[in-house]
Structures are given as C-alpha cells and as structure tokens.
Design brief:
Radius of gyration: 48 Å
Distance between the termini: 27 Å
Structural class: alpha/beta
Number of strands: 15
Number of helices: 19
Shape: elongated
Strand order of the largest sheet: 2-1-4-5-6-7
Length: about 575
C-alpha cells in the first residue's frame, strides 16, 4: 500500500509531503490545477524515463520519494529479498533528476538502475488511464488476469516445471545429434588409438625394467671383460691373488696375537675381509655365468623402447603416462559407442516429457476456456451499467503453433471488446477510448479483486464521458474495490468524489513570477465546499451545499452498510 509521497521541485510543485491511507482516496480540483502532477511524479518514481524539463524553474534538481507498506509473502517482498533490498515490510523508492548529470534511483537507500524501479513498480501500483503503466493493454497481463481470476497458480507452476524439463531434454538431444559427424570422426580415431595401445600392452613399471635391461645388454661386452679381470685378481692360483693374500695375512696375525692379545681385533677384521672377498668372488662367478652377449634380445628391447617412445610422442605425453592413457581412451570410446543408444533413450524421454507437458497444458486450456466465459460475461454485464449499453467483452484464446509451445501454455490470451452495439469485437488496444478503457479496467478489477496481486490501484479520468447514474455506479465500484485494495482516483465528478473515504484537493496559485501547485487533504466542511463547487460551478448556493452534504451522508451510510454486510459475512 502507498503510504507517503514526497515531491520536491517537480514541475510546479515546490514541496509536497502527502500521507495516504487505505480505502478510496479521491483527487479533485479545477481544470489545469495540476491533478496529473501527482501521477506524473509517481510514474517517474516507478521508472518512467527522466527528463530535466520536469525540474521546477529555477531549481537544479527535482526529487520524488514514495513509501510503500509491503505485505508479508507478497511478490514485492520476494523481489526485494531476491535483490537484497528488503527492509521490514517497508519499501522506499527515491528518484533524483539533476540538470547537470544523469538521474539516480534508490530502493531502500541503495542505488539501483531504473529498470529495477519498473520491475518493482509493476508489483506495487497499477495505474489505469492514459499512462505508460497501463497494464491492461499488455497481452501478458491479460493472460495473468485471467489466470489469477481462475486460480491457476499451482497449475502454471507445474506446467512451467514440465516445460523446462522438456526443453532441457530437447536441447541435450539436439546437441547429441549436432555432434554426430564429429562423433564419427572421433570414434574412428579412438578405435585406432585404443588398438595401438592394446597392442603395445605396456604394463605399469615395465618401462623402468626395459631401460635397465637395455643398459645391461648394450654394455654386456665391457661388463664381461671387466668382471673377469676383477675375478682373476680376487682368486687366481698365484700367491698374489687378493683372497690368498688376505688368508695369509690373517694366519700371520693370528700367530702374533698369541704373543700379544692386542692384535686379536686386527686378526678378526682380516678374517672378515677374507670371507667377504671369497663371497664377492663367488657372486662375481655367478654373474659371469649368467651374463652373455645377446644381440637378438638387445635388438628386441630397443625396438620395444622405440615403440613406447613413438606412442608417447604421438599422444604428447611422457612414456611413463602411457599405461594410464589406455583406460581413459577406452572409457571415452565406450561412451561414444553408446551415444546412439543414449540418443534413442533420450528421444523416448523427450517424447514422454512432451506428452506430460501437453497433458498439463490441455488441462490449463480447458480451465482457461471455462474461466474466460465466466469473466467475459461478468465484464459484459458490468459494462451495461457503466455507460456502455450494448457493449460486449470477450476473451479470445488463440492456439500457439505446434512447434511454439510456451511455459505459460499452448494459447495466447487476448481481451477483445465492442464498446458500442452492432460493432465487431476487436482487440482492446484498437477500439476503446481512454475513458472506456478505464471503465472496462475498473469492471475487470472489481471482478478479479479477490485474486489481484497488486495492492494499489490508481484510476485517472475514469469519469470521462459519463455522468449522473453511471458516475455514481463508477464511484460505488471504486469504493467496492477498497475491500481488497487501496484505490486512488482522479475525478471531475462529484458523484465519484462523494464516495471517497479520503479527499485531496489540488489547487494552483500564481503570482507575477511564480506558479505553485499544492495538494491538501480536506476536512469535512472543506469537502462540502469542494463538492458544492463541482456541483454548482461559479456560484455556490446554500442549496448546492445542502446537496453536497446529502451526497457525503449517503456515501457514509452506504459505507456503514458495507461494514455491517462485512461483519455479517464474517459471522
């Protein structure tokens, strides 16, 4: 609900602070007094394009600030929370227009782009009349009005979920099919690479063993010659052999140790060295027995190593990484070979998801058809009492092309109307005047008020071209709307103004160098005077004032009757 408006240096308003309440608030005033300024300022606060021409003459900037009370769980609250702008069920929107820079916008004190104002504004206020915020002319809002009236919230949520699942599966299938030619080329390459790696059959750790073996085979001749020479030095038959000399040294020291025990440790060390020399000689004999020149095996190992190096260069990895590459390529190959099977499965899933969507959409279509007939009849009946006798209202449901379904169903919703008898039904945007549009919108809002999601409704010039009985009916309908919504109405008719819960007067004063517009709430007697002016014109008589008091009293009595009816309905 709109609770406060602050305007500073906007058009011919120098400064205005206005508190607004629930119920029906009417704005009246002389022609040209500036009744539209309040709505223009509100439009600007809700994201309209900023123009420095709106800055009051002599000022360097204008500012509009509007405050809304937001309901717990409302769309506006959810939007504010999603944008990290929430503030305890209150929303303050501020717009600043400067002569020397771009306009600035703020929500709850945080700067935001103007687009955010427009998004949020459409959840807070619906302006009915010849304004850019007129939502009834937008076909998506027409659909939303019908769906709200029919209570399709849960049905639409389920349909949207089914639609998204269907689209995701279709996109995945399209990607699979689009990649078919690339997949065939990749399959051929993978099969060849896997075949090469499988033929190589390189095992973990085999490379190290091959490199060691190659080093040994490539140096076999030198190893044989050198090892044999060492063995000869260790154990030839001559007394100069190392092992023989060690044994002789050990014997000699043992003899000396008999005379001097201090040499016992030396004898033990020599004995150990002699034993290890014998063991080394034995190991070396065994090594020489096993070592032989094998050029055939050397060639085989060299060919194996060459094959390994060739494949590692081909795959641009180190030879050590080759064993891990094979299972990775085998897995990819298996996945691609199963792609056709996956595509077939996915095609079945797409068909199943599409069938589920169409079933839900058909259910929604049937419900829309039923609700459209009911709503169309109710609006047509209301038009007969709103100065459009013989007029007709209908709702057309145009099926979408089979290949163009949407998350909102399988049809477009369009409001069509004939404002005059004998005229064909045409889209709402083409056949009605501003006043007729406002009254049709008023009828729809009254009928759908229980389901409307927008808390504040503003009607501008809903009384254009009507008077008398019809004007009073318009006022009663506006007052009826306040059972569910806050309503603000700019009116020229006393029949409408008398039914307001609150009355604001717009006036303008001019001097030789300045013009100022102001808005003030009217007390009871002031309200009588304003209604008398609207009734009587230039000369206001006692009879005119009496008539004005009677109109206000009748409205109050009607209001009391409304309250009693509400209490009875709740008891």
């Amino acid at each position: 609900m709109l609770t406060h408006i602050h305007i500073w240096n906007f058009a011919i308003v120098e400064q205005l602070d206005l508190e607004l309440e629930a119920g029906l608030t009417v704005l009246t005033g002389e022609t040209g007094a500036g009744k539209s300024i309040l709505l223009d300022a509100l439009n600007l606060a809700l994201g309209d394009r900023a123009d420095t021409s709106v800055i009051r003459h002599g000022a360097d900037k204008a500012e509009i600030s509007v405050t809304f009370q937001t309901a717990e769980g409302s769309e506006a609250e959810a939007w504010l929370a999603a944008h990290a702008l929430e503030s305890a069920n209150e929303c303050i929107i501020r717009r600043v227009i400067s002569t020397n820079g771009p306009s600035r916008a703020f929500i709850n004190g945080k700067p935001v782009p103007a687009q955010n104002l427009r998004e949020l504004g459409e959840m807070l206020v619906d302006l009915h009349g010849q304004h850019e915020h007129q939502s009834l002319l937008r076909r998506d809002n027409q659909r939303q009005l019908l769906d709200d009236y029919a209570g399709h919230g849960e049905l639409l949520s389920e349909l949207d979920s089914l639609y998204q699942q269907w689209q995701e599966k279709q996109a995945t299938l399209a990607q699979l099919r689009q990649a078919a030619s690339d997949r065939d080329a990749r399959l051929e390459l993978l099969r060849y690479q896997v075949q090469e790696l499988e033929a190589l059959a390189l095992e973990e750790g085999e490379l190290v063993e091959l490199e060691n073996e190659h080093q040994r085979l490539a140096n076999a001749s030198r190893l044989l010659q050198s090892s044999h020479q060492v063995l000869q030095q260790l154990e030839n038959e001559e007394q100069s052999a190392i092992t023989a000399r060690l044994h002789q040294c050990t014997t000699d020291i043992r003899q000396l140790a008999g005379t001097d025990p201090a040499l016992e440790s030396v004898a033990e060390l020599l004995e150990t060295a002699a034993i290890q020399a014998d063991e080394a000689a034995g190991e070396l004999r065994h090594y020489l027995d096993s070592l032989e020149l094998d050029p055939v095996r050397l060639e085989s190992v060299e060919q194996r190593l060459a094959s390994i190096q060739d494949l590692s260069r081909k795959h641009r990895i180190s030879a050590e990484e080759l064993p891990a590459l094979l299972p990775a390529l085998q897995q990819e190959l298996s996945g691609l070979e199963q792609a056709d099977v996956r595509a077939e499965q996915l095609q079945q899933e797409v068909e199943k998801a599409g069938a589920a969507y169409r079933s839900q959409a058909a259910k929604l279509s049937r419900s829309r058809e039923k609700a459209a007939k009911t709503l169309a009849k109710a609006v047509t009946d209301s038009m007969q009492t709103l100065g459009m006798e013989g007029g007709r209202f209908d709702i057309r449901l145009d099926p979408l092309a089979a290949d163009s379904p949407s998350a909102q169903g399988m049809e477009r919703v369009e409001f069509i109307v004939s404002a005059n008898p004998g005229q064909p039904l045409k889209p709402l945007t083409k056949v009605v005047s501003g006043g007729e549009l406002s009254r049709i919108s008023l009828a729809i809002q009254v009928i759908t008020a229980q389901n409307s999601r927008i808390p504040t409704l503003i009607f501008d010039e809903v009384d254009v071209g009507i008077g008398g009985r019809v004007a009073e009916i318009v006022g009663q309908l506006l007052r009826t709307l306040t059972a569910h919504r806050q309503v603000i109405c700019v009116t020229h008719l006393p029949q409408v103004a008398a039914l307001g819960h609150h009355h604001l007067l717009v006036s303008k004063t001019a001097s030789h160098d300045n013009t100022v517009s102001r808005i003030q709430p009217l007390a009871e007697e002031q309200r009588v005077e304003e209604l008398a002016r609207m009734l009587g014109g230039i000369e206001i008589t006692a009879q005119t004032r009496s008539h004005a008091r009677e109109m206000i009293a009748r409205a109050i009595q009607g209001g009391n009757g409304e309250q009693r009816a509400k209490r009875r309905s709740h008891s």
